[in-house]
Amino acid sequence: MQRVIFNQKGGVGKSSITCNLAAISAAQGYKTLVIDLDVQGNSSFYLGIDTYSPDNRSTLDGTIAGLLKQSTGRWLSQKKKSIDFVRETPFENLHVIPSSPGLDDIEKELENRYKIYKLRDALQELDEDFDRVYIDTPPNYNFYSKSALIGANHVVVPFDCDSFSKQALYNLIDNIVELQEDHNKELIIEGIVVNQYNSQARFPQELIKELREEEMPVLDSFLSSSVKMKESHHAQKPLVHFAPSHKLSRQFFELYCELEGLEVESESNSMKTKITA
Is it true that domain 2-275 has CATH number 3.40.50.300? Predict the structure, then answer.
């Protein structure tokens, strides 16, 4: 299973959702991989790799940029396997192919050489080694986000509750549906996850009601706004490890279960699942 977290708008929590769902997956015993396609490298940093450190920013080796660059045939004398670009994280079962500042430098070359399917090829190789793959994407509909949507079989759309985001959501869904039709009929839109939700405010409730009345696929699990998320970013620890008993950690677990078709059970403040589908 390869799941893309995608929205054309920035600041909606793509990296936070990617890493926290992946961390829960790994904690549940699945061998899990995060692929960071966003040049900002937020998911990479969250999982312990600073792509802008002097040691990392000067090389493509061991990054998603390096994996894609070698498809042009001019970077490596001997092509490496996709698994060779995977790095371990401090967390059991959780691995990452980090971002790189070099993504910007090679985008035009990859696009001009029609390498839009190379990520799909890599994902097919990695399918032998990983049970779950989560892909963080840039905040625009560019070569990298299209590559992810073409290569994966599931997509989740983060959404923050404001009118501008709602208008952009229609265009985003249209783009995904068009890409489904032209390039990846296997791609499933799992749903829209509401992030930074304020249950005390009236406007978010009205906005979600409008989306559902328009038959937009809004998921039942909402994610609240919390300073605990920023603290976990700083600590470079996903919430399942940083604050497992926190309300937001529980909400992420419920979202994970909804996406996986699992029933949530409570037992002594711990989190466990029971398969129902």
Answer: yes
